[in-house]
Amino acid sequence: MAENTYELLYWQIPGLADITRLILEAVGASYTNKFVTRETFKEIKEEQRFGHIPKLTVKAPDGSVVHIWESKAIHNYLADIFDLLPEGAHTSAVKRAECFSNVFSLYEYMDRLSMIRVMPTLELRKEVRELAMSDKLPKALQYHEKLVAQSGGPYYYGKKMTLPDLILYALNVRFNIYIGEAVLINEAVTPHLHKLVQTLDAGRAGEYVRDRRDWG
């Protein structure tokens, strides 16, 4: 049976396309990257829904095509298409909201962490890093540790991989880059989150991060 194919329009960096690529890789979807440069983007900027990218183009077997903009909207769409939601979330607004409360919490941590990268000086980057490490991120992760522990693991919803698992995995990649390898998520402090990360790291998600993430 023929399946949809996907084309992701973005710069040749991880950036806002990183998690979309991670999701597509983790589920084994057929997709291609279409990279832009400063010059080529100028030509297509006004064609984009809000004047920026990423843009996901979905091509169905019948030839129909749809376009989706905004990275978090793309994540939401892919979670629906590839059943990256807990059992019952397609029909229960409450279960869906619970799932996305996990996701939005992780997005918030990711946004805080990104402040390290955008600070204009090394001293400011160090200051933001220390604030993140002081107690906010470690305490916040304990809530997620408890959720995964209660599920029986290795994922947020037991044995089923869902969107929160992939967002946590992407967050951990950023922890390793900006804070240090296994500083916040490790077997001693967050054993269940550590197992979740290790489980994904052993599969397609880990292969993407090791082999293709830097260039897309």
From TrEMBL:
Residues 4-86 form the GST N-terminal domain. The keyword Electron transport does not apply. It holds the Pfam family GST_C_3. The keyword Endoplasmic reticulum does not apply. Keywords: Transferase. GO terms for biological process: glutathione metabolic process. It comes from the Eukaryota. GO terms for molecular function: glutathione transferase activity. InterPro entries: Glutathione-S-Trfase_C-like (IPR010987), Glutathione-S-Trfase_C_sf (IPR036282), Glutathione_S-Trfase (IPR040079), Glutathione_S-Trfase_N (IPR004045), GST_C (IPR004046), GST_superfamily (IPR050213), Thioredoxin-like_sf (IPR036249). Residues 95-216 form the GST C-terminal domain. This is Glutathione s-transferase variant 2. It comes from Exidia glandulosa HHB12029. The lineage of its organism: Eukaryota, Fungi, Dikarya, Basidiomycota, Agaricomycotina.
